Amino acid sequence: MSHRIQLATQIPVAIQAMRGLETYLGTTEIPPALKELIKMRASMINGCAYCIEMHGAVALKQQESPQRLLALAAWRESPLFDERERAVLALTDEVTLIAEQGLSEESYQRGLILLGETLLAQCLMQIITINAWNRVAVATRMEHAHD
Question: How confident is the model over 81-138, as pLDDT tens digits?
């Protein structure tokens, strides 16, 4: 692959601002396992190998099962996700693919009922943030370090 600019080198203040969002998200009520499901699912949709590799490793360290991580590709058909996770994954899909149909009222209301206003808002910010990171990584062809 051809070399592309590194945004962290070229515009470190902007990347630091994005890291500030990650710092905030680390203080939210979103359970760590759910954060990684959001990050993995959005990254799968966006074709972001860098983030899939990074967040897959994090999820495995947090004792997430490889079976559930693989099932994320077809979560709607999988029995491995509970009702709340399914609501968050629906939000993740729709916000990630926002240009297709927006965020449906059905998914929004389901998320509101199952999560409440604060956790819904936090999950939406997590989805928005990983989508931004995916775009950074894909646009600049970032590669995850391999051991």
Answer: 999 999 999 999 999 999 999 999 999 999 999 999 999 999 999 999 999 999 999 9
The pLDDT assigned to 2 comes to 67
SS3 assignment for the chain: CCCCCCHHHHCHHHHHHHHHHHHHHCCCCCCHHHHHHHHHHHHHHHCCHHHHHHHHHHHHHCCCCHHHHHHHHHHHHCCCCCHHHHHHHHHHHHHHCHHHHCCCHHHHHHHHHHHHHHHHHHHHHHHHHHHHHHHHHHHCCCCCCCC
